[in-house]
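User: Can you predict the 3D structure for this chain?
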Amino acid sequence: KDELIEKYVDAYLDYYDAYTYKNLMAKHADMSLEDINEKARELGDEMERLKNREKKVLHVLYEHVPNSSRVVSKLYNLEPDNVNVRFDFYRLKYESIKNYVKDPKIYKAYSQYLQPEVYNIFVGLEGLLGTSDVSTDLKISALEILAELSEYTGQYDSQIHYLKRIKELAPDYEGIDELIEHAETLKASATEAATEGTAEASPTPMATQ
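Assistant: Here is the predicted structure, written as C-alpha cells:
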C-alpha cells in the first residue's frame, strides 16, 4: 500500500511540475525552452504565485501521506523553518539508512557513504532541539532518534546524554532509567574491549638474556 501511494505521489508531482512549465510556455508560446527558463527567472511575482500554489498542494499531500520522502523533501525545501516538516525530513532520512547503520559490519564497510548522512541527521535534529517553538513531544521524538543513532554508531556518551535529556523533559518516560543503565553498560563494555585490545596490541617485552 505504501509503495502504491508513493508511486501515486511521484506521478502527481511529476505532472504538477510539467503543468507548471506548460502553463508558462502557453503564455509565452513563441519562446524556446531556454528562453522560458530565463523568463521564469525574471517573472518573480508569477513564480512566487506558483510557489505558493505548490505549497498548498504539498501541504494537502503532506497531510495525507506524511511518510512520502518526495513530498516532505519538496516541502522542506520550500519551508525549511517549518519545525514539523523539518523533523519529518530528518526522520525519513534516518529511516532510509537505519537498517544499514544498525548492522556494524555494513556500517563499517560503507562508512564513507553512511557517515556523511549520519552527520547530517545529527546536525539537523540537534538544530531542531535548539529551536524555541518546538514542542516537548517533538523534542522527545528527535532525542529518541538521536539516542538510537548514537547507540548504533557506538557513540555511547552521546546516547547517555540524549537519554538524560529525555528524562529531563519527561521524568515519567516509560523505562528511561533502564535505557540509561543499558547505555552505560554498553559504554563500559566498549571501554573494556578497547582496553583489552590495546593491551593485546602492545609488544611483549623481550626476556632478559
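The first helix runs from residue 2 to 27. The chain is about 80% helix and 0% strand.
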